[in-house]
Amino acid sequence: MRDDLQDVVDEVSRLLGAPATLEDVDFTLLAFCAHPTDGDEEGDAATAMDAVRARSILGRGSTPATRRWFEGLGIARAEGPLRTPADPAAGVLTRLLLPARADGRTRGYLWLLDGGRTDPADAADPALAAAVALAARAGRLLADRDDDRDLGAALAAVLTAAGPARDRAVRALSDRLGDGAPLALVALHPPGGAPPEGWRPPPAAAVLPGPDGSGGDGVAVLVRLARAADLRPAAAAAAAALVRLPAGASAGVSAATTDVADLPGRWAQARAAAAVAAVVPRLAPVAQWAELGGWRTAAALPAPDPAVAPLLAEPLLAATAEAYLDAAGSVARTAAALGIHRQTLYYRLGRVAALTGLDLADGDTRLLVHASLRRARLP
Predict the structure, then answer these.
(1) How much is the pLDDT for 344?
(2) What pLDDT was estimated at residue 53?
(3) Alpha carbons 287 and 329: distance in angstroms, whole number
(4) d(CA 209, CA 195)
(5) CATH for 2-144?
(6) Do 2-144 and 301-377 come out as alike in CATH topology?
């Protein structure tokens, strides 16, 4: 969306021949076009950098006092082009405001330092009419952004609330979605669990707090699907989000559902898939719940079984036992996978039995040890 907004600003600046900036209703700078650093030989005010624009660009926003001054001119109520006066004492030049509106609401402000050349009331000006249409496009883009933020907040409530509060959140999110389309959740798991400072979440995303209240439980992204059986849009959204996260990040995709009340369970699936993707190279960097196989059992355990604790203290033996179990107890395949002689493998398996008292020839024991070893590798 940021590139689209920049395109709008550049085109409006070209149409009206004036430097332009786009801010949201909180006066946060979203896009701006290049601005000459000097006036022309005649000191043209239209090409002089005014104080407000300089502060907006350098600080990515305006001060509360600046906001109050402009809002006092009625900009929040403007439905069409508006001329704002200059304030020479404050270093403020006259501006042409094109409100960026959508759905009957002002979503942002497109400002032009045109030196007063454009008459905001001239309905016959084709350049102004084209610029107004572009401002409406910016309003639509900002409305979509606002909707995504609202959707993310509603999703966070569904995933983190409990009892009646969760029930209310489920109803609210169901009302917002409305169409009953299949949904999937994507879990993004940055290194450490929290996204880096300044990271912009994708649409319909919620950064969820960890147990200590920090943003350490990952990022949930709600994806609408055309068909419940086709999770490719969710996998694509996960891959695109990972590009903007630090190395080592992983992602998981849940199964689909048409019921918002199912989303907490789908969040558990997506988180499990992301955790597995972080430690299993063949499933990295985006894993789907449907392809986890036996890793589902491991991810469902709260912790490795205590009977396996002595083995976990011996990493070489733990890796050997896991490779042996991955190979369904085949000595030949395990030795080949580890690159060791069969006798070395027999020796290590004997040490595993002596250390734990567990018999890997027993089916129940194999299941216990295999799931526990895998669980120990998960975050």
Answers:
(1) 97
(2) 67
(3) 26
(4) 11
(5) 3.30.450.40
(6) no
Which residues, 6+ apart, have CB-to-CB distance to 318 below 8 Å?
311, 312, 373, 376
Q: Is it the case that residue 128 has pLDDT exceeding 70?
A: yes
* 360: Cβ contacts below 8 Å, ≥ 6 apart: 321, 324, 325, 329, 349, 352, 353, 366, 369
The interaxial angle of helices 331-338 and 315-326, nearest 10 deg, is 130
| Gap between the Cα atoms of 240 and 111, Å rounded | 32
Residue ranges per structural domain of the chain: 2-144, 179-298, 301-377
- Residue-wise pLDDT for 36-89, tens only, equals 544 443 334 444 556 666 666 655 566 788 888 899 999 999 999 999 999 888
Contact 78, 44 (CB under 8 A): no
For domain 301-377, the CATH class is: mainly alpha
Q: 29 — alpha (psi -120 to 50), left (phi > 0) or beta?
A: beta
Per DSSP, the three-state class of 163 is helix
pLDDT at 61: 60
97 and 110 in contact (C-beta within 8 Å)? yes
With 0-12 / 13-18 / 19 or more C-beta atoms within 10 angstroms meaning exposed / middle / buried, residue 244 is: middle
pTM of the model: 0.67
**What is the sign of the dihedral through the CA atoms of 102, 103, 108 and 109?**
positive
Instruction: Report the amino acid identity of residue 114.
Output: D
Contact status, residue 22 vs residue 45, Cβ threshold 8 Å: no
Kindly give, in sequence order, each residue whose CB lies less than 8 Å from that of residue 125, ignoring residues fewer than 6 positions away. 118, 119
d(CA 228, CA 226): 7
| CB contact at 8 A, 220 and 156 | yes
Q: What is the residue type of 90?
A: A
The amino acid at 358: L
For the beta carbon of residue 89, count every other beta carbon within 10 angstroms: 6
